[in-house]
Structure prediction request, 209 residues.
Amino acid sequence: MENIVVSKHPLVQQKISDLRRVSNSSQQVRELIDGIGRLLMYEATLDLELTTTGEEKSPVGSYTGQKVAKRQALVPILRSGLGLLNAASDFLQGAEVHHLGLFREETTLLPVEYYNKLPRKCSVDECFVLDPMIATGGTAEAAIQILQSWGVPKIKFVAVCVSREGIERLAAKYPSVTFFVAVVDDVLNKNGLVVPGIGDCGDRLNNTA
Prediction:
């Protein structure tokens, strides 16, 4: 599907292999998620539009300045999405940050919203949703629906590890959303867990497993 961009960068694949390792400390998980996030954000920002800012001065001459033309927002899905926020913020330093609190109910596997402080009126042209995992896709779908209802014109979704079932369903249902992912795993088990996956990313990031 054209709206699924799977990174082919060899360092992404190496870091995914390292991230899967069960013996990692929380610090190692945070560093690996951050490193993968930076490589994914590079790909996710390649098509940003530029506008000129007029004549500027360098130490040895003049030049035409440039800046990103449109307004962006970073939307980490609590809590594991925070693991990607520093990387995304370094790429888009002027972006707004809006947190969405969503979790998957363990019995039904359905998303539950518990935090949403989006401004009443949409104030940006593009949102980058940040969440390391897409399993069944329910939480990701809830976030997309919230942002579309808010009125954001363009959504990009940055995820580290996704299930094939979940990502293909989302990509088909939301063709206007582009998904930037590090790895697609084929197995989604009966408990809604991606196999081999990367485990519960929120627990691993925060040492609460």
Remarks:
- The helical segments are 10-20, 26-44, 85-91, 138-150, 164-173, 201-206.
- The first strand starts at residue 4 and ends at 6.
